[in-house]
Design goal:
single chain; BirA Bifunctional Protein, domain 2; alpha+beta; Translation Initiation Factor IF3; 15 helices; five-stranded mixed β-barrel; Rossmann fold; globular; about 500 residues; five-stranded mixed β-sheet; ATP-binding
Length: about 500
């Protein structure tokens, strides 16, 4: 009977993944985010419920970023979700860039609206009419605002949880300055914070660089980004962007000011954002065939403590030891919990918390109780070690730090192994077929980039420029562009992307 019951529990919970990361990445990813309790599918395609397990990761990143931007004297605000069509249409290039993705409200109850109202895909056109109202003189500058909100982009191609959804959470910063120099400085300060979110918190290496004219933000002057790479699919992914908008929007929305000498000036503007896409990148990079692997810095539970009582063991003693262990760790600022559920076996619990990606598991059985120790099992490499309860706090802290660092190192090693330097079109095509992230000398001409897109169009999707890294390798004189043969001006990363 006991055996039968065990099987029934196993079947009911559906533990274990049916797809392997190496064999069917798309299905594996969909399964991991649901089984790991990150999301639940919703009855509207491309919309997802963010469960507490993923929301807590977002809150950790939010807490870090919010403190950092406040140090930069950026203030939080909130603007409405709806945009009038007249305002949205005002900046032509900008709205053309977003037109296919804009969702419109056309009805209220049974009545058609006289004028349809758009739902914000981003808030430049929502906010800037008010910037022109609030900015009069040089003393009103800089104006630095940020909002934590949701946006809607009604994309129809391949919705993917976190990576490409119709509604997502993000922060969007919008700032205005008296000079281009101030705007340029802030663009890079914010980009550095984005790099820190990926590298320090999510343990994902990124490349900082500038987008091509073709890939920059519609209506902006230039776009910088942090680019990540998913080795399993051979695709780059834009991690976050920081744009210098120049004076284009200021011209459209008449954001003018009077300087100290009484002369008229036009504001220089930036906008910048990162979104819940960050969480999807983390799942893709670190996850394995047992489920999620969470970096300790963002895991809402860093240590799970599981009692392992055998027949005739001192069960109460084991439970007490587990509770005491959790208390000790929590007092040290470590996010720890115990799993005391009686209707699941220890083995089931191991699989469950592995699926959820908890960085460290602590097991306490009769032998551990007798020896005043615990057994610690790492999620990243399954290494097991017995730790005396007297040195628990220090050892666990060290292990969590080590897991965080090793996840980053492993991800960097995998990513670097996928980077290929090419000089010719033949080498480029070969590297693309091997799903590489390609670094190539380029003449920096839009026509040539368009041509690369055309020539690589296929089942897998076309290749495009990802970014030109700020950290430029040496470009020997006379180096030719890999695609046109013209003199190369810079090194640029290319590849397929999400």
């Amino acid at each position: 009977m006991a055996d039968g019951k065990k099987k029934e529990v196993k079947k009911e919970t559906g533990l274990g993944l049916t797809f392997k990361k190496e064999e069917n990445f798309g299905e594996w990813y969909s399964e991991v985010v649901v089984n790991g309790e990150m999301i639940e599918y919703y009855d509207i395609s491309g919309c997802y419920i963010l469960r507490p397990w993923s929301m807590s990761i977002w809150e950790t990143m939010q807490a870090f970023f919010d403190v950092e931007i406040k140090k930069m004297k950026i203030k939080n605000c909130y603007f409405p979700l709806f945009v009038s069509s007249s305002v949205l249409q005002k900046e032509k290039d900008h709205i053309e860039g977003f037109a296919p993705e804009v969702a419109w409200v056309t009805k209220a109850g049974k009545s058609d609206l006289e004028v349809p109202v758009a739902i914000r895909p981003t808030s430049e056109t929502v906010m800037y009419p008010y910037f022109s109202k609030w900015i009069r003189g040089h003393r009103d500058l800089p104006l630095k605002l940020n909002q934590w909100c949701n946006v809607v982009r009604w994309e129809f191609s391949n919705p993917t949880p976190f990576i490409r959804s119709r509604e997502f959470l993000w922060q969007e910063g919008h700032t205005a300055f008296a000079s281009k120099q101030e705007a340029d400085e802030e663009v890079l300060q914010i980009l550095e914070l984005y790099q820190r979110i990926y590298e320090e918190f999510l343990a994902i290496p990124v490349i900082k660089g500038k987008k091509s004219e073709m890939e920059k933000f519609a209506g902006g002057l230039y776009t910088t980004s942090v680019e990540a790479f998913i080795p399993n699919t051979g695709r780059g992914i834009q991690g976050a962007t920081s744009h210098c908008l120049g004076q284009n929007f200021a011209k459209m929305f008449e954001i003018n000011f009077e300087n100290e000498k009484g002369e008229k000036g036009m504001a220089w503007q930036n906008s910048w954002a990162y979104s819940t896409r960050t969480i999807g990148v983390m799942v893709m990079v670190h996850g394995d065939d047992k489920g999620l692997v969470l970096p300790p810095k963002v895991a809402s539970v860093q240590v799970i403590v599981v009692p392992v009582p055998y027949k005739d063991a001192d069960t109460q003693g084991i439970f007490d030891a587990c509770a005491a262990t959790v208390d000790t760790l929590c007092e040290a600022g470590i996010r720890a919990e115990a799993d005391f559920r009686e209707n699941y076996s220890p083995g089931w619990k191991y699989s469950h918390w592995e699926m959820k990606g908890v960085p460290l598991r602590i097991e306490i059985g009769p032998k551990d109780l007798a020896n005043n120790q615990v057994r610690a099992v790492r999620r990243d490499n399954a290494a097991k070690v017995d730790i005396s309860r007297d040195s628990l706090m220090e050892k666990v802290k060290d292990m969590l730090d080590d897991i965080q660092q090793r996840l980053f190192d492993a991800a960097k090693q995998k990513r670097d192994a996928c980077i290929q330097v090419v000089k010719t079109w033949g080498e480029f095509k070969e590297a693309l077929s091997q799903r590489k992230m390609i670094l190539a000398p380029w003449c920096d001409e839009e026509e040539v980039e368009r041509d690369v897109k055309e020539r690589t169009r296929g089942e897998m999707g076309a290749a495009k420029s990802l970014c030109s890294p700020f950290d430029q390798p040496e470009l020997p004189e006379g180096t030719a562009c890999f695609a046109s043969g013209k003199p190369a001006k810079k090194w640029t990363y290319w590849g397929r992307s999400y």
